[in-house]
């Protein structure tokens, strides 16, 4: 049972990438629009005073904000696509239809049962307008629930076909036929259940807020501790996109979730300081500063004979963490060989968020320095307090460096470059892999090595990927050769949970996924 629950959570976590990874793009466009409409910046760059440029900036910000107030349908479509095993396009289209059926069914039932509140009294009533339809305010949870339901039915019946006159009702059409009564019944049931859930969510949010800095610390530490399971997204996503992360009215619109509030406040020039809820998205301090200090500590404690090799490993990993916020290459370099360092890293991540909150810093950089520059600098110091963010970051760098260096030396930890002779605990760089590859047969390419290390084609049931990891389901995980995956394919880490295998490759994982699909004769979805 435990393994089934873990498998389901991993699939759900992977499916969430489809909608979640789109939203930072919207944030960056809003930030760009804010640059074009920033009056203070226009004093130094006269070009920005042009009406066309200013109008274009307002169009960018305003149009992208519309995404934030319609997250339910975005998560519904995105999650159904992410969870669908086959015919993903049909799953997405079906989920759109189901969403429309649901909100209309719920509106009609609320009207029949005399539970619709007057539209001028919506605020605080637990109801809201969704695509012009008045329903219970379920926010992003509505999209998640419907996305999962659609995916479950779709995966079971999307290939079911009929003969004769009923042939037209097979496949994806059958899925929608089944979903119509299911959706209507679900709308009726949730009209009674969701008010209770709303009260529960509100209580949980109040508890976390009442916990103050302790709650922030637990949030920040857990978000890192769950990295090995691949489920860390389940920690921060509810705070970023639901009422758990706060509720605020901006420009006459009500926004739920720390990131939604943040983006809306970015686009609103009347907001003089960002809301305190932004702290839930201040998860990037360790990515830009702390882990860089850890890299320096690991390099300085490396055995002299290995310094050149480890420098080639740690510099690209540090640059990737600083620029893009991808931390796995660094974290997996010490996570399994020195787990105490990973625990310390998680604790420091939580504490860094507490420090930002104590000093009232409203700047964020969840995905590295590029995000930090685009999100914060155009808004100004008063609105974000970004110089203090950098100052705290420098302190974070120093603490990581000193603590990691002390622990590595004190406990003789086998971090990269400190392995005993003959041990294969270090990670290999891309150049290391190429050197090994040149000595093999010409037809022994990367994909074939990966497939072989996973137990062969017949052992692989499913191939998928997320932002940084190749995610697979295998028949027999005991056949997986972790040493080969790390030493000969430049994997940063390998995680095995039952039949689920995750191989960490970083930002190049999408290309590797395509190569593996080609090797297996599959079509990448």
TrEMBL record:
So where does this one cross the membrane?
20-39, 59-84, 91-110, 130-153, 174-194, 200-222, 308-326, 332-356, 363-381, 387-408
Q: Which GO terms describe its biological process?
A: phosphoenolpyruvate-dependent sugar phosphotransferase system
**Database matches in SUPFAM superfamilies:** Glucose permease domain IIB
Q: Which domain of life is it from?
A: Bacteria
- InterPro entries listed in its UniProt record: Glu_permease_IIB, PTrfase_EIIB_Cys, PTS_EIIC, PTS_EIIC_1, PTS_Glucose_EIICBA, PTS_IIB_1
Q: Name one Pfam family in it.
A: PTS_EIIC
Q: Which GO terms describe its molecular function?
A: kinase activity; protein-N(PI)-phosphohistidine-sugar phosphotransferase activity; protein-phosphocysteine-sugar phosphotransferase activity
Gene Ontology CC annotation, any one: plasma membrane
Read off the NCBIfam families from this record: EIIB_glc
**Is Transferase a UniProt keyword of this protein?**
yes
**Protein name listed in UniProt:** PTS system, maltose and glucose-specific IIC component
**Which keywords accompany this UniProt record?**
Cell membrane, Kinase, Membrane, Phosphotransferase system, Sugar transport, Transferase, Transmembrane, Transmembrane helix, Transport
KW Transmembrane (keyword) present = yes
Q: Which CDD domains match?
A: PTS_IIB_glc (cd00212)
Task: Pinpoint the PTS EIIC type-1 domain residues.
Answer: 3-420
Q: Where in the cell is it found?
A: Cell membrane
Q: Which organism is it from?
A: Clostridium uliginosum
Tell me where in this chain the PTS EIIB type-1 domain is found: 444-525
What membrane topology is annotated for this entry? Multi-pass membrane protein
**Catalytic machinery residues:** 466 (phosphocysteine intermediate)
